[in-house]
Every structure is written in structure tokens, then in C-alpha cells.
Amino acid sequence: MSGTMVKKAPWFSGLQRSEWRSLLAANLGWLFDGFETYALILTAGTVLHQLDPGASAGRTSFLVGATIAVTLLGWGIGGILGGVFADYFGRRRALLASMVMYAMFTGLTAASWSWASFVVLRFVTGFALGSEWGTGTSLIAEMWPSHARAKAAGLMQCGLGLGFFIASACWYVIAPLGPGAWRYMFLLGVLPALFALWLRRQVPESPSWAGAQRHRAELRERDPAELDARERSYTGFTLRVILADPRLRRLTILGSLMSLVTTLAWWGISTWVPAYIATLAAKHGENAAAWASRAGMIYNGGAIAGYIAFGFLADRIGRKPTVMLFFGASLILTPVLFLWTHDLTLAAVVLVVNGFFTLGQYTWMPVWLPEFYPTHLRATGTAFVFNAARFVAFLGPLLSGAIISRLGGYGVAATTVGLIYILGLVVAPMCPETRGERLPES
To answer: Is residue 39 very low, low, confident or very high in pLDDT (cuts 50, 70, 90)?
Structure first.
């Protein structure tokens, strides 16, 4: 043998410009979603103090939880409908509609004049936000080759953390501008509309979806009595087909349970991180508002690393063990942060590690879920699993808010809600390992 060593090509070699553009579009969409969502988390207390100045501290905590819950409810409904839309009308068109709609309603949120108007606009904004993720996830899964698909999913998902980080940085600058500063934050949410023209012109449609759509059109022209079960799955209503097929139904139930774990824990725990750190800072005589913004940036710095690392780990050791690692670490790190960390410097360190696992675990969904469903049902299936959990997860902020209101502290509330990670550790082993496999086409 020759002594010359063959150098292994990097994972990104051979990728086309169209694949990178699809990733950029999905990442930007999720970044804008992240900015808008974290803007709500950072400003909700300020908004409600201004719109309902007579509310007690306990009532304000409850109203913050209720506002987040309503946003989640709208997100869940819009997300499921958006997934169905993307399977029938295309990934690119659904992304475009989502960006324009949530940019418009986020901007309108800045004009809220009462808590009721704010909540209504949050519901509609959540509805528009919901359809972006399932569409972007399907586009990435179908455009990228199998050896790089999980890594691309992690890079897409990190857009959420980037959006959170940018929102925290913006609030750090905008918060001192006065009582109406929160309105400027929501006005910034109009910016995604500027990317709509680029998306329409530069981002290609998924060839896999286009092929499935042509096949669907051909089958609809035939006599339904002549179609076999596989062919009828193209002509039936996508969500009904998924729930009627025994294999897909089982995968959907398992995926939805794990989605519930990630979603409920995030909204019921992570949303309180800025408020908890602000309280800790106030006890040490530090600027609470400044520390709340810093906490968001530190926390989401860890999250960005977690989002990306998950995709690489999933390709290295498999989807299943990576999910279980992140669930187990999150179960342990929740009480570490909220119950046992009382020093601000130590809290900053714990925030990085906590964010890596508790937020980074979200990448399991864009990595694993597209590998459960065939092309003509993929956006519906992934969107349903991702968003249906919100119909239960919206109770997380309400539960946490109620516990905080009654007990006056974040530790017990966060640790109680964090027990949901145990469910994830039970369910994940029941799902199939799909590392290295091609996407199912039919």
C-alpha cells in the first residue's frame, strides 16, 4: 500500500448554492420567530404594568403567564394549519405567507392600548408564527443530503437562539428609553417583511414536494376505486391520512409526547429565566433590568451552541441517545439553576450549560421528525407534532405563574414543571433510530 493517506472530505463539500439558500431562508424565518417570541418574554412584565398599572405583583405574574399561554394557543392552531398548507401549496409559499403575516401583526402589537387588545394581537401573531417551523424543517430535510441533513437542521434551529440573543441585546439598549420602550421592540418585528421579496426570488421550491404534488394531481384524475392504500394516501386529507395509518399514528403519538416534554418545559421554565436572574440581581443590589437582558444573552449563547451540537451528535451517536442525553441533563440542571444557584457569577456559568441542554434539545424535532413521514405528508406530520403539544403546553406558563404567585418564588415552580423530562426519557427509547437512512418518499 502507498503511504499516502486519503483525506476525508468535509461534511459540507459538494453542497449546492440552492441548499445553502434554503437553509438561510429557514434559519432567518426561525430567527425572526425567536426575536418576536423573546421580545414578548422580556417585555411582558413591563407591558402589563403599563397597560394594567393597578395590578398586584401576583396578578401581573398571572397575566404574563396568560399572555404567553394565549400566544402558544394561537401558535398551535396556526402551526398545524400551516403544515397542511405547505403540503398542498408548497414549502416556499408557506414560508412567504408566514413571514409577511407575523411581521404585520407584530408591528400592530406596538399599538396595543389595553391588556385585552394586547392579548388578541398576541393570539393572531402566534397564529402567523406557527406555520414557519414545520415548513422550514420540511424544506431543509428535502433539500439537503442524508449525511448533512441533521447538521443543517441544527444550523436552522440555532436561528431561534440567535433571535433570542438579538432580542436580549436590543432590549438592553431600548429598555432605558422610557415607558414606551416595549413598543419599539415590537416595531422591530416588522423587519422580516423586507426579506419576503428575496425569499420569493432566490429560494427554490423543494423538488421532492414538487414531484409528490405532480403525483397527487395525477392520482386525483383516476377513479378512486382503482387506487391502492398507498395511492389513496396522496388523495386523502393529509392529517386524516396520518392519523388513520397505524404506523404513522404511533410515530405521531410518540413524537407528540416528546414534543410536549420539550415545549411545556421550555414555556413553563425557560421563560422565567430573565425574571429569576433579575430577582437574584436585585437581592445583590445590582441593576435588575440589565441583568435580565444579560441573562437572556448568556442563556441563549449556550442555547445556540446546543442547537448546533445536537445535529452533529445525532449524526455521530444516533438520534435516540442524543435526545436522551439532552432530556436527562435538563432534568438535573433545572433545580441546579433555580434552587441551588444564588451567586450571580455562578449563575452566569450555569446559564450557559443549562441553555445548551434545555434549549438545545429543540433540535431533535427538525432532525428526527422529518424522518418519520413521507414527502407528501411531511409538513403536516412535523407541524402537527411540533404544534399540537402547545394545546397542552400553554398550561405550563399558567401553572408556573400560579405557583410563583402563591409561593412567591421561581425555584419550586421550575423544578415541579421540570419533572416532565422524565416522560421524555421513557418515550424516546420507543422511537425508531433513523441515523443514516434516506427520507421516506411514500
So the answer is: confident
In a domain, 440, yes or no: no
List pLDDT tens digits, range 7-19.
Answer: 677 888 888 888 9
Q: Is residue 107 part of a domain?
A: yes
Q: How many domains does the chain divide into?
A: 1
With the C-alpha atoms ordered 305, 311, 314, 315, is the resulting torsion angle positive or negative?
negative
Residue 411 CB neighbour total at 10 angstroms: 18
Residue in 320, 385, 428 with CA at minimum distance from that of residue 134: 385
What's the rounded Cα separation, in Å, for the pair 253 and 243? Answer: 9
Using alpha carbons only, give the angle 209, 213, 218 rounded to the nearest 5 degrees: 150
For residue 434, give the C-alpha cell: 433513523
Q: Give the angle subtended at the CA of 347 by the CAs of 394 and 303, to the nearest 5°.
A: 55
DSSP string computed for 344-384: HHHHHHHHHHHHHHHTGGGGHHHHHGGGTS-GGGHHHHHHH
pLDDT at 52: 72
Residue 339 confidence class, pLDDT cut points 50, 70, 90? confident
> Helix (H, G, I), strand (E, B), or coil: what is residue 433?
coil
Q: Is the pLDDT of residue 49 over 80?
A: no
Please give the residue range of the domain that contains residue 263.
Answer: 17-430
Q: Above 80 in pLDDT, residue 362?
A: yes
Q: Is residue 437 part of a domain?
A: no
The answer to whether the CB of 239 falls within 8 A of the CB of 371 is: no
Q: Are 136 and 28 within 8 A, CB to CB?
A: no
Q: Which three cell numbers stand for residue 125?
A: 401573531
For residues 49 and 364, the answer to whether their CB atoms sit within 8 Å is no
Contact by Cβ (8 Å): 106, 189? yes
Residue 364 has pLDDT above 90, yes or no: yes
Tens digits of residue pLDDT in 128-155: 888 888 888 999 999 999 888 999 999 9
Q: CATH number for the domain including 150? A: 1.20.1250.20
Q: Judge whether 378 and 141 are in contact, CB under 8 Å.
A: yes
Residue 2 in domain: no
d(CA 2, CA 16): 33
